[in-house]
Amino acid sequence: MVPEAEVRDVLVELQRLRARVPLLSGALAASTDGLVLAHDTPDVEPEGVAALTAAALGVSIRMAEATGRGGFRELLVRGTGGYVATYAAGSSAVLTLLAGDRINVGRLHLEGRRAGARIGELVDAALERAERPAPAPDPRAPQSRGAQNRTLPQRPT
Asked: How confident is the model at residue 77 (pLDDT cuts 50, 70, 90)?
């Protein structure tokens, strides 16, 4: 799981993205298995979008591999009311953007790719730190001797 500090950083990135691209109606970062990391999706249920993103991602990965197109980078779905765009965000996350039908798709891709790269850096760095083994204790450091060392020494009276 991604630590809380990085989740806040991801949320800030989503909010900045929505400020830069006014026709975005929502932005969501999720793990590749469909768990919400952070979201700024006022009119959409984020858990459902994250789960659908994971399903679409699975199909997209298989499609890219089966056709010899390499690893997944992005997916664009156009509906009658707008776009859903999903971008790779590092090795274990995705960015999904919801946009109105009047958005400049080139701008959507430009900003989505940039934000996906930034979110990927944040998430991958957090996961790498979390996976590092704890440092071995220094054998020269003083060792605790149970409950007797947990209180301050008393002055003789």
From this structure: very high
